[in-house]
Specification:
single chain, about 230 residues, mainly alpha, Ferritin, three-stranded antiparallel beta sheet, 3 strands, about 5% strand
Length: about 230
């Protein structure tokens, strides 16, 4: 339900009051002095919306709805990865880059800080995955790749599709984010199964917990959008 915003305007004793904002300066017919305008209706709407977000999931760690992540502890000891598990690790790097690049694009196109905050978290996630790639001597598929470009054609197609979807509206972008995190949770859950390497299990477990927080953040923002 859209919020009703009422702007009360009164001119008294040479002072203009707009929406509760006191504007100094003389207000008299025939003068060249123009009072500083108060906030527009849209500005007041966004201020209220941002205030709601700060309390209910804008991207601050305190409210636990932003998907922000704590720093990683020291990496566990190295183990052994099978050929299939190394291939999964390569896929994880591509997925983390996809999430980062997609949320960065959405942060530039939509007024929702959740994208900027989670994109920052994805940078740390990709760094953790790259550490594993280096440890296990696996080629990094994201190395030197520009924003929005991927080695795997399937990942490229997914990125292009979700980017186009998210350009339509904020709700569409949030839904795209929900899709990314839902897919990541499924992939990470499968990747952890049967994995014995302590360091890889540690990183994947952290990524899984982070994706669950990210998903909760997107779900919350979608609920807020639908309520307006």
């Amino acid at each position: 339900m859209k919020r009703d915003i009422r702007i009360a305007t009164a001119v008294t004793a040479g002072v203009l009051v707009i929406g509760g904002v006191l504007t100094g300066g003389a207000v008299a017919a025939g003068t060249d002095s123009t009072p500083t305008p108060g906030p527009t209706v849209r500005q007041q709407m966004m201020t209220g919306r941002q205030h709601h977000a700060e309390r209910h999931g804008d991207g601050t760690y305190d409210v636990r709805r932003d998907g922000s992540c704590t720093g990683y502890t020291a990496l566990a000891s190295q183990g052994t990865l099978t050929v299939a598990q190394k291939a999964t690790l390569v896929g994880m790097a591509e997925e983390e880059k996809l999430a980062h690049d997609l949320y960065t694009a959405f942060a530039e196109g939509h007024d929702a800080r959740v994208f900027e905050r989670i994109a920052s978290a994805e940078t740390r996630h990709l760094t953790a995955v790259r550490t594993l790639l280096d440890r296990y001597d696996v080629t990094d598929p994201t190395a030197d790749k520009p924003t929005g470009e991927f080695t795997d054609p399937a990942v490229q197609a997914t990125y292009d599709r979700l980017l186009k979807q998210g350009e339509d509206s904020l709700s569409a972008a949030l839904a795209a984010g929900r899709t990314v995190e839902t897919d990541d949770i499924a992939a990470l859950t499968e990747a952890v199964s049967g994995l014995t390497a302590p360091d890889a299990r540690q990183v994947y477990t952290n990524l899984l917990a982070a994706s669950e927080r990210h998903l909760a953040a997107f779900e919350h923002w979608l609920a807020v959008e639908r309520a307006e």
